[in-house]
Amino acid sequence: MVRDVFDDERRAWIADHQGWSRIQTRRAELLARQIRRRVREQTGARPNPHEDTVIQPIWARTGPAPALTVEGAAVLMCLCAAPIGWLAGYCLHKGLVSQIPRRIVSYPITALVWSAVAVGLPILLLVGSGMSPVGVYLLVQLPAMFFAAGIYGVLEGWLSVPGSTDLWPHVPEDPPVQLPELLGADDITPPVLLEYRRGESGRGGN
């Protein structure tokens, strides 16, 4: 797919911004594996298979590393705060990526974050209106869906692709088709074989 062209830029962006997070290290490795697989399919090259090794997902890692503790606490907090919104946001993220570049040229991070704000503000007003905590909790899942989808766009490196910060990165319209001059009207004027020069009309055969 054409969106695979962006894999190199996204992988480089993730690698530059991953910091201490092993989650981002795994994302960069997964993209690198996908790039090498595509190279093998297109060129028949056989790179070192050991380069395709990827860090285990967070739920399968073990050890007392501080980074793992912080990541695990953050994931657990998000899971408890917005499980439905997180899952829906992930599905929305996958759906939007599948539309690149047929309908949108990049991932709409700005539109998703602002959608979360626009939907979340009315819900905050309902908190003090006597609405039950369960009702508020369920309503919170909606802005969480948009926010999670936007965060996935950032974590997946779509900020490296032009258009991701636009309000909505539409596909540009095709330029109008202009017919070449060769397809214009034909000139049917016959060529001039004899040049008529001034002053020769009155001359005879002298």
Textual characterization of the structure:
Helices cover 51% and strands 0% of the residues. The chain is mostly helical. It has two domains: 1-81, no CATH class; 83-172, no CATH class. Helix 1 (7-17) runs antiparallel to helix 2 (22-43) and helix 4 (83-97) runs parallel beside helix 6. The termini are far apart. The relative contact order is 0.13.
Summarize the structure.
This protein is mainly alpha-helical and 206 residues long. The chain is 51% helix and 0% strand.
Provide key terms for this protein.
flat, 6 helices, 0% strand, 2 domains, single chain, mainly alpha, 206 residues
Taking the alpha carbons of the first and last residues, their distance comes to 83 Å
Largest sheet geometry? none
Low-pLDDT windows of residues: none
Strand portion: under 5%
Helix content: 40-55%
Task: Characterize the quaternary organization of these chains.
Answer: single chain
**Whole-angstrom Rg:** 31 Å
Average pLDDT, all residues: 80
The overall number of domains is 2
- What is the SS-derived class? mainly alpha
Helices, by number, come to 6
Order of helices and strands: HHHHHH
Q: What is the fold's blueprint, element by element?
A:
Layout: H1 7-17, H2 22-43, H3 66-81, H4 83-97, H5 109-127, H6 133-155
Helix pairs in contact: 1-2, 4-6, 5-6
